[in-house]
Amino acid sequence: MKVLIVGATGMVGQGALKACLESDDVSQVVLLVRNPITLVSSKVQQIKVADFEQIQHSDAFQALRDLDASFYCLGVTSAGLTEAQYLAINHGLTLKIAKLLKPHNPDLAFIYVSGTGTDRTEQGRAIWARVKGKTENDLERVGFAAFHAFRPGLIQPLDGIESKTNNYRLMYKLMTPLFPLLKRIAPNSYVTTRQMGNAMINAVRDRATPGIAEVKEIIQLAAGTAK
Questions:
Q1: How far apart are CA 129 and CA 115, in angstroms?
Q2: Where is the NAD-dependent epimerase/dehydratase domain (predicted)?
Q3: Less packed terminus of the chain by CB within 10 Å, N or C?
Q4: How far is it, in rounded angstroms, from Cα 33 to Cα 186?
């Protein structure tokens, strides 16, 4: 399959990229990036984009055709942002890219990394939950062949992957000794970056039922046991 990853430098995006590089099911990976990643692989094509709205006018746009899947892992924390700023990045940009892809990829499976607690009523008190809920709703209306909203909660970074956010990076380091305990007493309370990547690939390969995938469903998809 040919896969587009948006947000490949983030923690989840790194996990998705690693899974794609290791998977025999993935033949080509296209990365939409602002700054190129240091990576040598015959599978990978990087498209450097300063202005996403101008992608369709560049020669590189051809690489965004005939895609089987798009793993949308881009997003920022709401901390320090107004609702308008957060909405512009996490909703506005997401929808722009989605609507750009749709006409040229009729069989595309679009996987959006959302979050547990997302509010699809768009009426809740938490900015991030409202915005992610609105984004899920609007992406579903785009009309992709398959739309999946992955809602991880706590994510354990593996394979040397780290968050780009200092506070999150510190939190994950402090949490590291607790993950084995959580796995025993609350196995569906978190996912790993490895599981996120494998779940995305398996959801597309196995034509999993579209819709919302909470932590338990993500774990099942990663293991290949989802219904």
A1: 8
A2: 3-115
A3: C
A4: 36
What pLDDT shows up at residue 227? 66
Contact 206, 187 (CB under 8 A): no
Distance from C-alpha of 15 to C-alpha of 109, rounded to nearest angstrom: 18
Return the exposure string of 145-158: e unless at least 16 CB atoms fall within 10 Å of the residue's CB, then b. ebbbbbbbebbbbe
Give pTM, 2 decimals: 0.93
CATH number at residue 104: 3.40.50.720
d(C-alpha 43, C-alpha 169), whole Å: 29
Distance (Å, whole) CA 192 – CA 120:
25
Structure tokens at 9: 């430098």
Order of strands across the sheet with 211-213?
Answer: 44-48, 28-33, 2-6, 69-72, 109-113, 146-150, 211-213
What are residue 45's DSSP bridge partners?
A: 30
Please tell me the total count of domains within the chain. Answer: 1
CA distance 25 to 10: 23
Tens digits of residue pLDDT in 40-80: 899 999 988 877 666 766 667 788 899 999 999 998 888 77
Tens-level pLDDT at each residue, the chain (227 residues): 999 999 999 999 999 999 999 999 999 999 998 888 888 899 999 988 877 666 766 667 788 899 999 999 998 888 778 889 999 989 999 999 999 999 999 999 999 999 999 999 999 899 999 999 999 999 999 999 999 999 999 999 999 898 877 777 888 788 888 888 888 898 888 999 999 999 999 999 999 999 999 999 999 999 988 76
